[in-house]
Amino acid sequence: MSDLTRMTAAELAAKIQAKEVSAVEVTQAHLDRIADVDPAVHAFLHVSTESALSQARAVDEDIAAGNQPASALAGVPLALKDVVTMQGAPTTVGSKMLEGWQPPYDATITTKMLEAGIVILGKTNMDEFAMGSSTENSAYGVTHNPWDLGRIPGGSGGGSSAALAAFEAPLAIGTDTGGSIRQPGAVTGTVGVKPTYGGVSRYGLVAFSSSLDQAGPCARTVMDAAMLHEVIGGHDLLDATSINQPVPAVVQAVREGSLGDLRGLKVGVVKEFSGKGYDAGVMVSFNEAVEQLRALGAEIIEVSCPHFTYALSAYYLIAPSECSSNLARFDAMRYGIRIGDDGERSAEEVMSLTREIGFGPEVKRRIMIGTYALSSGYYDAYYGSAQKVRTLIKQDFEAAYEKVDVLVSPTTPTTAFPIGERTDNPMAMYLADLCTIPASLAGHPAMSVPSRLSATDGLPVGLQIMAPALQETRMYRVAAAYEMARNDADGGPLINRVPELEVGR
After folding, report:
1. In which element (H, E) is residue 170 found?
2. Catalytic residue list contains 156
């Protein structure tokens, strides 16, 4: 493995700007790494080799001309989740329904990254239409966790998290509807951030659940995530849900947190996120993390958020309902593939056959749940009631933040489970998002940072840090302080312990 692929994004950017290494060399090293290990990991659905090298050359030419770098991350490679549009590359959303589709426009975050000189390596695998917790629902095959190739890398953004953990890219973009950035981050020992809803533009994201979907940064360090956050964040006139507020100063918050002083900060431990269903190794790691925060000077306070126990049920009514509405457009007439249009079948028959073949089992399951929840006579009993629970969850957060500055919990109840273990048990699969869903329903920022390896199975455990809306600086400060203390205690970053994967060329 090249030394360049082991470096952080911040380190690579500094070397590129100092002309110690070229952006082309950095990009080629990561393309070589993808060729070496991705046949086993399957993090990527599409690798944009020529486009990536062209982007890198443009950065090098700019630097050679003496121009100011386009951003602090100019020349650094990135893996892009395949739910985000990018011209010149297919956007399939992990579905046969959009197989081969070449979008005619870039998502706003794609535009921002390209303008910042970030080099986009390609598109990463995901659960179909972002529906899943394991990346086993992709129409294009399963992604494998680099820590153990027999286990899942999380979902729906398992391709992005696996690319980071396999050192195929130092940065990635994910999207989080109910935990699809944070849960993959936790089980791969990487950093995943869900910004405040509306804090990062959703224009160009293929919609699953419009009131929940949120793009965010994925990285191997808190600083790298913060640097990417500042690139992709901000108001966008193309997104009606975008918040017209400045991007939080998260890089500065990381610098402050790295001083290792959390005195005066109140950290709330959510009482409801423990007990039955949580692996012993996860809880041991979480309790150690809480004590580490206490040692850094934070005041630890237990808080109760009683309606969090209903979050999973509410989510699996709200998200499928919005999915049923959003995916109605993929009907063979407006968008998506068209199957069976032989001139003899009726439009209704073509639509039915297309949706039968184009959508996978999990997508169909959620469309049916959502359609039922929105149907006449059931709307108030199901969707309407779920929205009332959503309001109660927001009120729980408001009450908690009157007492504390941030909330912490395990990111997931378990470590990465074996591939195939839960595919026939949707309820067991849905429980992977037990801790992440409340912040999604409230629209609040939350992130997962690597904690310790579980004493039970030796796999990564994530610490979830949550903050009030638009208060990302609080959680980044806590995350940076914890990351520094953990690295000092463990003799280096957790990601350095991932097994080597020289399995390709």
Report:
1. none
2. yes
Q: Catalytic: 209?
A: no
Task: Give tens-digit pLDDT for 398-452.
Answer: 999 999 999 999 999 999 999 999 998 888 899 999 999 999 999 999 999 999 9
* The token pair that represents 193 in the structure block: 């951030």
Report the run of H or E that residue 182 belongs to, with start and end: helix 182-188
Q: What is the rounded CA–CA span in Å between residue 170 and residue 12?
A: 9
Tell me 410's DSSP state.
E
Whole-angstrom Cα distance, residue 305 to residue 297? 24
Q: Is 194 a catalytic residue?
A: no
Query: Cβ(63)–Cβ(24) under 8 Å?
Result: no
Active-site pick, 15, 81, 112, 194: 81
Instruction: Find out whether 238 and 201 touch, Cβ atoms under 8 Å.
Output: yes
Contacts of 234 (CB under 8 A, 6+ apart): 112, 200, 201, 246, 247
pLDDT tens digits along 354-381: 999 999 999 999 999 999 999 988 888 9
Catalytic residue among 22, 51, 161, 180: 180
**Domain extent listing, the chain:** 3-307+392-497
Which overall architecture, per CATH, does domain 3-307+392-497 show?
Alpha-Beta Complex (3.90)
Check whether the bond before 156 is cis (ω within 30° of 0): yes
Contact indicator for 96, 363 with CB cutoff of 8 Å: no
Where the chain has pLDDT below 50, the residues are none
**DSSP for 422-449, written as a single string:** STT-HHHHHGGGTTTHHHHHHT--EEEE
Number of alpha carbons in the 13 Å side-chain half-sphere of residue 235:
5
The span from the CA of 372 to the CA of 398, in Å, is: 32
- The amino acid that residue 101 corresponds to is W
- In angstroms, the Cα distances linking 459 to 81, 147, 218, 448 are 24, 7, 19, 15
The Cα 429–Cα 282 span in angstroms is 17
**E-state strands within 93-241:** 119-124, 171-176, 191-194, 214-219
